[in-house]
Amino acid sequence: MAHGSESGSNVARTYLFAGGGSGGHLSPALAIAERIGELEPSARSLFVCSRREIDATMLSEAKVCFEPIAASPFSVRPRPLLRFVANYRRSIHTVKALIQRERVDRLVALGGFVSAPVVVAAAKCHVPVTLINLDDPPGKANRWIAKRCEQVFSAIDVGQLPRFAQRVVGMPIRRCALAPHDSKWCRNELGLDPARLTLLVTGASQGSRSINALLIALAASDPSMFADWQVCHLCGRADSDAVRRAYAAASIPAVVVSFVHHIGLAWGAADLAISRAGASSVAEAWANSVPTIFVPYPHHRDQHQQRNAQPMVAVGGAVIEPDHLDPTINAHHIGTTLRALLSDHDRRRTMQVNLRAHPPADAAVTIARLLLDLPDDQPGSPADAHALTGQGAIPTAAG
């Protein structure tokens, strides 16, 4: 098991978190583990993740103990299917040994392909399982896992399956996803001009090729729309050089990075954002009261990212634009919306006020208290901002 920190000797309970393959699965797990540690310092939190680089990067940065397993997504194609079966069996064996060695008291599954073999291993070891569902509708893996769980909580209301979850708890958010200070301070920390309006562009933990292509096209075709603005662009690794060149050629002030661990700095710097609509991204935008243009990932059959963003749209804090994949078409449709919001200070201000008027509760602490068998702290009430950040009134968000 990889270690980011030393474990204590007098341990009350040990919680194993299963999830990975993307930051969207790991960030909520880290948020819950963070609150467990605050509420019960003697408790331990361990992580099982995929072998993807993003998992090791995030968990190492968070200084937690983790073990990658050979889990892979299900496929009906012959060769990937054989690999899936072999990896599935190997993963169950690995996790059973881990559970027994670390004396795990409870498994907390965040869904996805990593969780399935871990849930099987937990059942074989008679370890109770809690599922935290992050999407509406739940994916196939989560629907399968839910039948094998003692508890099912959902970060988002699952309208199509009203009996799926025992409780809707909201989306858990890490403290590092909350702005640590005011916008000028955050901009300065990121190397931006503290006094300049800032557009945040993010495709989540691994970037978005189509959003990157959109901004490259807009910088080339209409750089004047960015007058008086600067850009903080989190683009993933593949496109960083091309994105950086596009802004430089258009003389648009920009900081371009592949990934920011303290994502709260980026949200805190932003006056407006363009983002994918993963559940964590929506929750972070809402928690930091950032007006946002959501561009849902277009390849999900169930289009759950569209539903993720809808509650934020409903309160008047966001808009949704479809991703047509073609940069020219996106530049016309999404570009029109972006141009209007960049130039309309009153509309952006109204969107921000709408978000602040509907502050979500601290879902991470709610889940942590449930896992620790502690009394509820008035579920659904806005979180105490000082308890979360020590700074301004920025609560964590519901999905």
What's the structural blueprint in terms of helices and strands?
Layout: E1 14-18, H1 23-39, E2 44-49, H2 53-61, E3 65-68, H3 78-102, E4 106-109, H4 115-124, E5 129-133, H5 140-146, E6 151-154, E7 167-168, H6 183-189, E8 197-202, H7 209-221, E9 229-234, H8 240-249, E10 254-257, H9 263-269, E11 272-275, H10 279-287, E12 292-294, H11 304-314, E13 318-320, H12 327-343, H13 345-356, H14 363-371, H15 385-388
Parallel strand pairs: 1-2, 1-4, 2-3, 4-5, 5-6, 6-7, 8-9, 8-11, 9-10, 11-12, 12-13
Helix pairs in contact: 1-2, 1-14, 3-4, 6-9, 7-8, 7-12
Overview of this protein structure:
This protein has 399 residues and is an alpha/beta fold. It folds into 2 domains: 14-168, Rossmann fold; 177-356, Rossmann fold. The chain has 15 helices and 13 strands. The chain has a 7-stranded parallel beta sheet, with helices on both faces. Strands 10-9-8-11-12-13 form a 6-stranded parallel beta sheet, with helices on both faces. Strand 5 (129-133), helix 5 (140-146) and strand 6 (151-154) form a beta-alpha-beta unit. Helix 7 runs parallel beside helix 8 (240-249). It is globular and about 60 Å long. It starts with 13 loop residues before the first strand and ends in an 11-residue tail after the last helix.
For the CA atoms, what is the radius of gyration? 21 Å
**Strand-and-helix sequence, N→C?**
EHEHEHEHEHEEHEHEHEHEHEHEHHHH
Main structural class = alpha/beta
State the CATH superfamily name of the largest domain. Answer: Glycogen Phosphorylase B
Count of DSSP strands: 13
* Range of helix content: 40-55%
Strand order of the largest sheet: 3-2-1-4-5-6-7
Distance between the termini: 31 Å
Please report which band the strand proportion falls in: under 5%, 5-15%, 15-25%, 25-35%, 35-45% or over 45%.
5-15%
Shape: globular
What is the class of the largest domain in the CATH system? Alpha Beta
CATH architectural grouping of the largest domain = 3-Layer(aba) Sandwich
**Quick one: biggest sheet?**
7 strands, parallel
Number of helices: 15
Q: Tell me the number of structural domains.
A: 2
Annotated CATH topology of the largest domain: Rossmann fold
Oligomeric description of these chains: single chain
